[in-house]
Amino acid sequence: MSAALRLVDLTVSYDRHPAVHHVSAEIPAAEMTAIVGPNGAGKSTLLKALLGLAPRIEGRIECSARRIAYLPQQAEIDRSFPISVLDTVLLGRWSRFGAFGGAGRVDVHDAHHAIESVGLGGFERRPIDTLSVGQFQRVLFARLLLQDADLVLLDEPFAAIDSKTVADLMDVIRRWRSEQRTVIAVLHDLDQVRRDFPNSLLLARELVDSGPTARVLSAENLLRARAMAEAWDEQAGACEVPLRRTA
Amino acid sequence: MIYDLLIAPFADFGFMKRALVASLCLAVGGSSIGVFLILRRMSLMGDALAHALLPGAALGFLLGGLSLPAMSLGGFLAGITTALVSGAIARFTSMREDASFAAAYLTALALGVLIVSLRGSAVDLMNILFGAILAVDRTALLLVAGTTTLTLAGLAAIYRPLVVECFNPGFLAAMGVRGALYHSLFLGLAVLNMVAAFQALGTLMALGLMLLPAVAASFWAREVWSMTAIAAPMAFLSGAIGLLVSFHAGLPSGPLIVLMASLFFLASLVFGTRASVRARLSHPLHLRG
């Protein structure tokens, strides 16, 4: 199994406080990997770092993906903005038409198809402020479908979403895997991770463990993760001796 | 009778004609800027920015007297500087952008009034603060028309990144687009429009024709383009009606134009089709699904 991503001694800091601390791990290609950990464990920060959006990175990220698609947490989106479902989904083709080009007939056709396949057929003209949280998440998944990426990053895709929608969207995610795409999702529902995600990475600012989910999510590991995440030391001195962990 | 009331003032007097054309230009360019200011939740920040033109315009006044090019250039430079400096302060410190804008504009306003008082009279100060649309001459008209042309072309060019920057900045960043660049270009266009509106309406009310129609339009429309399409005619009508009332009643035109825009706002607030008072109070049957 080849690696889609290799993190080599990765540290990401805000204000010099590391949010992700000396993490080394491999994430397998064409597989579904869950990133798990307590709040403040650096999960979203890790995704931002993979996208190249983190403020300060030490260490290395080796990524073989050609194109990365990213599902942000919904709080990062202004859902009251006057834009239609179709226009939102069409943005998934940004890499084709960029800031200035026009969307072609193929793009519009594909967008309709994507909207249909997430179960929102007929919603194309609806403004996004009339949608429920679950419906809007479906819109964002349709946009991901249009991005045609080989690496898909999902930040808490199922927060505040009902079980029917979760089931439908999980179908989309499984389809991505069958199409040989790599999926990495930040998740909180451990039962769901155990059920649906063969691979996990348990993070508590430092890496607790990564690999097959059954091993990573052991009771002992989860306990360690919780204990490790709670330390934010105002008086912390500079980290001089790099602490190396192997996955 | 109707001719005397509505047409004659514009047909007979050159200054009224120029004022009408100026308000048409300001309406078309400014209201689209206003729509974006509202969508970016920057309406008050835009207002602060308009006040910040004052020290630049005052400096232009100090050096060049009541010369429009000097004052406009000064105002534009002051506005851009304020926007960039307060943006930078907000990025490099933990201060919120609205707070740093407020700090910058209060400083600017005080500085501006002080500079004008060094040389000018109270009348000059009044003109700079509240404008004189009836004094719009050929040069001013060219400036306003040029600004509108540049605004429409500029907004059309940066439309898509600007919209995405408004509602989902993270997506734009993930696409490798520098949202800050488009934000700055937009602020540049906004400042340009404030400078253009400055002679007509003064630094204190420059945003009147931009924001009020845009806010009013948000009670009627729910796409960016339709909001603009509704805001622009409202802005122009405010200008035309304001000028007529000011002509017949012998009252200052700037405040009347802004008040007309306020009337459009109030009417939309009450009668608009979405989120208005009427929509709140009426109880139509709910739909089946």
Describe the overall structure:
The complex is a heterodimer of chains A (247) and B (289). Chain A is an alpha/beta fold and 247 residues long. The model of chain A has no long low-confidence stretch (mean pLDDT 88). Chain A has a domain at 1-66 and 188-247: 3-Layer(aba) Sandwich (Rossmann fold), CATH 3.40.50.300. Chain A has nine helices and nine strands. The longest helix of chain A is centred in the C-terminal third of the chain and has 16 residues, at 163-178. In chain A, the strands form two sheets. Chain A has a six-stranded mixed beta sheet with strand order 5-6-7-3-8-9, sandwiched between helices. Chain A has a three-stranded antiparallel beta sheet with strand order 2-1-4, covered by helices on one side. By secondary structure, chain B is mainly α. Chain B has a single domain, classed as ABC transporter involved in vitamin B12 uptake, BtuC (Orthogonal Bundle), CATH 1.10.3470. Chain B is built from 14 helices and no strands. In chain B, helix 2 (14-39) packs across helix 10 and helix 5 (68-92) packs across helix 10. The longest helix of chain B has 30 residues, at 138-167. The radius of gyration of chain B is 20 Å and the shape is globular. Chain B starts with a helix and ends in an 8-residue tail after the last helix. The interface between A and B is medium-sized, with 20 and 23 residues.
